[in-house]
Design a protein that fits this description.
With about 170 residues, the chain is α+β, with helices and mostly antiparallel strands. The protein folds into 2 domains: about 5-105, no CATH class; about 130-170. Helix content is about 35%, strand content about 25%. The strands form 2 sheets. Strands 1-4-3-2 form a 4-stranded antiparallel beta sheet, with helices on both faces. A 3-stranded antiparallel beta sheet has the order 5-6-7. A hairpin with a 2-residue loop joins strand 2 (about 70-75) and strand 3 (about 75-80). Helix 1 packs across helix 4. The chain is elongated, with a radius of gyration of 21 Å. Residues about 25-50 have low confidence and may be disordered.
Length: about 170
Amino acid sequence: MNLTDQLGALESSFDELILAAASIPASPESSTASVADSFADAAVEPATTAAEPVVEEKLPVAEEKPTLNVSRPEKNVVAMTIGGVSVALSPEGLSELIEELSNARASMDVEQPPGGLPPGWRFVATKNPVMATQRYTNGDHLLVLRHTGHGWVPFSFSPDMVIEMYAMLTKR
C-alpha cells in the first residue's frame, strides 16, 4: 500500500471515528472493559493498529459532548478515544495523523496566535536536526528540517529572510 493509500485509509478511519463519536447507540448491556484492555487485544495484530477502530461503548449521559482522550498503553502505541470509540495508532499511523492534522491546521482561517512563544508552552526540541535545502528560480529557499516528533517540517524563505536568519544565527 503506497503512502497515498495509507493516508486515505487513515483519513477514512479518522472520519469514521468522528462520525461514530457523534452517534454511538449505547445500550445497558454495553461492555465496560477498560480502554487499555481493548488496546492490548488490538495491538496483537500490527496491521490493524494503525487505523482500525476498537469500539468500546459507554452508557449515554444526557447531552454529553464527545471528548478526546489520548493515552499511551504501550511504548509504541498511542490510543485515542472519542465518545467511546477507540483507535490504537502505531508510530507510522501516528506520523500520518500528525501530517494530516498539520495540513488541515495550516489551511484553517484562524491562524496560530502571533507573537512570541506562549507561557507554559511545552515542546520537544530536536538538537542538530537532519536538514535539506533547495533554491527556487525566484530566489526563495526551501529549508526542510527533520523533527523527532513532527517528522520533516518544510519552511520557505524569501532572500531577505535568508539574510535576516543568517544575521540572527551568527550574532554574538
